[in-house]
Structure to design on (161 residues):
């Protein structure tokens, strides 16, 4: 009889351990899946934001084409300059301003509540590149102007050589 009670206790203990292990396993799977969902949502939101930035810069160019190619215009209360190909030139006190370019392209939006901050700006004879950081600063957004503006996203692993 005592042996039977001891066997039942051991069996109950094993059931408890197996049940606990199963619950812990399910929680780990759920947490891993929810992190993956969050990462996918952030990537999707960032991609949509970058597309929106590109579209906004293209809209300024379309304005220039439709309105007889002015050298400057006031759009939404802002005085904007255009280059000879119709792309905006974000000038602040006569200097190219990447923060102004970001403001014009992004219109004050944030991605998942995280700001986009200027990292650096590089200019050359026929163009300019503005590189911004986002989130944990391993994600970069680049707005590059050669013939036209292009907006792209890069991860830190893509920028290392």
């Amino acid at each position: 009889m005592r042996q039977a009670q001891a066997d039942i206790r051991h069996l109950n203990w094993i059931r408890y351990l197996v049940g606990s292990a199963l619950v812990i396993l399910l929680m780990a799977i759920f947490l891993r899946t929810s992190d993956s969902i969050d990462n996918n949502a952030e990537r999707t939101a960032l991609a949509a934001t970058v597309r929106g930035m590109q579209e906004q810069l293209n809209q300024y160019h379309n304005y220039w084409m439709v309105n007889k190619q002015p050298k400057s215009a006031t759009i939404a209360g802002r005085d904007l300059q255009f280059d000879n190909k119709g792309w905006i030139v974000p000038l602040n006190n006569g200097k190219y301003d990447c923060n102004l370019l970001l403001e014009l392209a992004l219109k004050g939006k944030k991605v998942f509540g995280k700001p986009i901050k200027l990292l650096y700006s590089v200019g050359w004879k026929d163009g300019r590149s503005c590189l911004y950081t986002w989130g944990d600063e391993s994600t970069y957004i680049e707005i590059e102007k050669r013939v036209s503006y292009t907006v792209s996203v890069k991860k830190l692993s893509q920028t290392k050589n």
